[in-house]
């Protein structure tokens, strides 16, 4: 059954964003009963699917790596606004919210999203290729950002506890913004070709695949390069993408009280709420990355995974540094020993995974197991 198309877009993709936003308005500030909770969850899932669709339309129009960058930036900007809002209204209980959310985003993207993409793509295509220079560049920036922003506060002595002093926080914010800005410039201008998906017709791919696999890859690549949508359609999708992402983040915040109650009832740490909200917020990027891997475009998946981690750190820390001017209460940024071990394991594993430019099921399984360890230790520290 084919979708009814209006203005070059399926009708469902035009209807879902305003409906999801209407659900957000209906549920905002209310105590969710069973029926309203089901409605919010349905709206959240629908908004995620619509967001991925519109992100792909925009990406097809502007080309890579701009498409993945737009999705990562859009999600992160709204996520940062949510973090600042929750910190402003949460008091001392929200002191570690920024740290927990950013670290959860790093672990979700670098292990969950990347690992799932590798597993799904490898099951279908056996071996997938990506560009080593792009992946290693993103990983280097991500490692430096996390170390300077989330590891150092544990060891500094100017402020008590795992916190930065005002001057140190300002310095970390500027450094984070500069590094992320330089990375975006390199990704989109100076070395854009590093971040483009590997062509299925390159000699490396032909050398490592048999004829049948190569024919499948060429067919998928041809499908991916269908006629690009018009500027009007792309602008409509960009607007609806923003509406979808607002709905996703808003609905995730709406269900957070229920999550907090469930976490309290289970006796789990409060940080679990941040992990669950991060999982919900990152759903659009996760679905987009997995779909790209299924199309044998693993470079797009890697761009989304690492790009989302970079955007989360590179934009959150500067925003928190500015917001600290009027925020009251402590701001805990330093990671604990358990989190540092998980981060070090993630960096080592990702370095080995991204070193060869080719990935199989094994690398994906390793990343998913590290992600599983993160989830398990979040619930049972």
Give a nutshell description of this structure.
Helix content is 75%, strand content 2%.
Q: List low-confidence stretches.
A: 200-225
In angstroms, what separates the terminal alpha carbons?
49 Å
Total DSSP helices? 14
Strand content: under 5%
Kindly name the structural category: mainly alpha
Q: Can you say what the CATH homologous superfamily is? A: NCX, central ion-binding region
State the helicity in percent bands. Answer: over 70%
Q: How many discrete domains?
A: 1
CATH topology: A middle domain of Talin 1
Oligomer: single chain
Strand order of the largest sheet: 1-2
Largest sheet: 2 strands, antiparallel
Cα radius of gyration in angstroms: 21 Å
Task: Explain this structure.
- With 381 residues, the protein is an all-alpha fold.
- Helix 1 (11-27) crosses helix 9 (231-266) and helix 4 (97-125) crosses helix 10.
- It has one domain: A middle domain of Talin 1 (Up-down Bundle), CATH 1.20.1420.
- It is built from 14 helices and 4 strands.
- The strands form 2 sheets. The chain has a two-stranded antiparallel ribbon. It has a two-stranded antiparallel ribbon with strand order 3-4.
- The chain is 75% helix and 2% strand.
Write the layout of secondary structure elements.
Blueprint: E1 5-6, E2 9-10, H1 11-27, H2 34-62, H3 66-90, H4 97-125, E3 128-129, H5 132-151, H6 166-190, H7 203-208, H8 211-224, H9 231-266, H10 271-281, H11 283-294, H12 298-323, H13 337-353, E4 358-359, H14 361-379
Antiparallel strand pairs: 1-2, 3-4
Protein name: Ionic transporter y4hA
Subcellular location: Membrane
Membrane topology: Multi-pass membrane protein
């Amino acid at each position: 059954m084919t979708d009814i198309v209006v203005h070059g877009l399926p009708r469902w993709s035009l209807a879902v964003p305003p409906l999801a936003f209407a659900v957000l308005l209906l549920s905002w500030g209310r105590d969710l009963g069973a029926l309203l909770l089901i409605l919010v969850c349905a709206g959240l899932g629908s908004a995620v699917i619509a967001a991925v669709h519109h992100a792909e339309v925009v990406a097809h129009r502007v080309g890579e790596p701009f498409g993945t960058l737009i999705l990562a930036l859009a999600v992160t900007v709204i996520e940062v606004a949510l973090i600042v809002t929750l910190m402003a209204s949460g008091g001392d209980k929200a002191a570690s919210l920024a740290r927990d959310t950013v670290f959860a985003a790093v672990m979700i993207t670098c292990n969950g999203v990347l690992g799932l993409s590798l597993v799904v793509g490898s099951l279908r295509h056996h071996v997938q290729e990506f560009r080593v220079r792009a992946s290693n560049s993103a990983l280097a920036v991500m490692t430096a950002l996390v170390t300077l922003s989330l590891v150092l506060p544990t060891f500094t002595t100017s402020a008590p506890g795992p916190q930065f002093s005002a001057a140190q926080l300002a310095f970390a914010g500027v450094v984070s913004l500069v590094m992320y800005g330089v990375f975006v410039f390199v990704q989109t201008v100076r070395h854009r070709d590093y971040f483009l998906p590997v062509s299925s017709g390159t000699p490396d791919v032909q050398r490592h695949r048999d004829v049948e696999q190569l024919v499948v890859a060429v067919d998928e690549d041809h499908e991916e390069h269908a006629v690009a949508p018009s500027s009007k359609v792309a602008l409509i999708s960009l607007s609806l993408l923003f509406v979808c992402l607002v709905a996703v983040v808003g609905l995730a915040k709406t269900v957070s009280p229920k999550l907090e109650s469930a976490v309290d009832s289970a006796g789990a740490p409060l940080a679990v709420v941040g992990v669950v909200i991060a999982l919900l917020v990152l759903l659009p990027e996760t679905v987009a990355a997995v779909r790209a891997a299924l199309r044998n475009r693993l470079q797009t998946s890697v761009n989304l995974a690492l790009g989302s981690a970079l955007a989360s750190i590179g934009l959150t820390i500067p925003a928190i540094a500015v917001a600290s001017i009027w925020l009251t209460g402590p701001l805990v940024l330093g990671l604990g020993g358990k989190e540092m071990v998980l981060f070090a394991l993630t960096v080592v594993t990702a370095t080995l995974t991204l070193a060869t430019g080719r990935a199989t099921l094994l690398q994906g399984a390793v990343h998913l197991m590290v992600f599983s360890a993160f989830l398990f230790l979040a619930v049972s520290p």
